[in-house]
Amino acid sequence: MNAIELGPFVFATERFAFLLAAVTFFGSFHLLTLWHIAGVREDVRAWAFPAAMIWLLGARTGYVMQQWDVFSQHPLDIPKVWQGGVSVWTGFAGLAAFAILAYARRRAAVAPVLAAAFAGGLVNLGVLSLKETDETVALPTTAFPTMAGDFTQLNERDGAPLILNLWASWCPPCRREMPMMMDVANTIQGADLVFANQGETPAQVTSFLDTLGLGDRHLLLDPTSSLMARFDAVGLPTTLFFDASGTLQNIHFGEISRAELLSQIATIDTAASNLGDGYIPDSDQTGDHQ
Fold first, then answer.
1. Whose CA, among 58, 103, 109, 245, lies 20 to 30 Å from 9?
2. For the whole model, what pTM was predicted?
3. Which residues contact 108 (CB under 8 A, 6 or more apart)?
């Protein structure tokens, strides 16, 4: 599964794994310190929040360094953690440094920190293991109307990879990511970004584009939201990555960052290059992140 539904709330699997791991960390630390306090009469609960912040800072810093070519050009994107993007192992490296500090200053905090981090890491891996990796849904043969009044078929590709973004103007994350994604769509070489509006009228789409000063070159209309149903998109925005053969390689649910977008495109580029059929994105970005 690429998204997890909890009543009216929908989470991308990676973000849900991160949130559940954080809850597990704090819950485990609290329980462990209660037991620890009973044994040594030391209150080390105040160390939980700094440990979590050190992990997050290390994880985000590692991701930013891995994607530095992108972040160096757009430094204001660095603190946008809500868009996703952490390097798990650099986070643990930061936590290890914190444990050394704790050992030097408050030894009683070391065991709860490391045990709670281990528990959170296991939960994170467990949730991520639920994510589907074998996606076989093909592009539809339906002809979709464009803003220019003609029609286009997504399955009739010219041999270039396709990035398909499902969006609507009433969706706040869609509104936030659209200017960045339009910028990438206008500058990237050898890959096509298509924005498929879900369920709105041409007038509504035009009003939104005019508000942000965006063009309609890469847009098509899906008035019945058929693409959401076809690809089991439980919410918006949803970004789908297809290779040059039209095979679905990955799905990103929720707001996407420039670094993650380019990283996913570069991943498709690497796979295509191995087959002798590559393309050139503006930035080659890879890294272990979620």
1. 58
2. 0.72
3. 36, 40, 42, 44
